[in-house]
Each structure stands twice: as C-alpha cells, then as structure tokens.
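TICKET: design request
STATUS: open
ATTACHED STRUCTURE:
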C-alpha cells in the first residue's frame, strides 16, 4: 500500500492528483447558474475509502487539500425552512 504526503517529507505519488480526479469524476455536481460553483457528492472519508481501491492511503486532510487545489467543495443537502 502506498502512502501519500503532499507537503515536505514522506513518500510522494506523482500522479495522485490524476487518480483523485478519476475517483471523484462521477460525483461532481454544480450550480447551473454559476459554472465556477462545483461540489462533491462524497464526503472526505468516502474519497479516502475509494482511493484505497488504488492502493493509496491518504487522510481526510490530504483530500481537503486536493479538493481545494481542484476547486471543489463538499456540500450537503439542507432542508428548506418553511
């Protein structure tokens, strides 16, 4: 199993961003009125689990950094107040 650390030290995986984008590809949603507003339908923990299929173990914090770098955010559904 490969471990990843984006900042100083540790083992680095050169194509982790490509694999990350491959993992989240079918789970991206967005605002139809604003093309720049995009979010993931997955939690950071779910992304970590899906990365394990590629033998890459990363933390939720690394997922947060990758999401920020790829300009995605997590968004949950909220019940509308009446």
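STATUS: resolved
RESOLUTION: sequence designed for all positions
ATTACHED SEQUENCE:
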């Amino acid at each position: 199993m490969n471990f990843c650390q984006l900042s100083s030290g540790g083992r680095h995986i050169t194509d982790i961003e490509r694999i990350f984008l491959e993992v989240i590809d079918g789970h991206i949603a967005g605002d139809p009125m604003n093309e720049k507003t995009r979010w993931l339908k997955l939690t950071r923990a779910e992304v970590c689990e899906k990365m394990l299929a590629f033998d890459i173990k990363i933390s939720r914090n690394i997922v947060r950094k990758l999401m920020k770098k790829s300009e995605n955010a997590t968004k949950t559904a909220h019940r509308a107040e009446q």
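CLOSING REMARK: The beta strands are 2-3, 28-31, 34-40, 56-57, 73-74. The mean pLDDT is 77.
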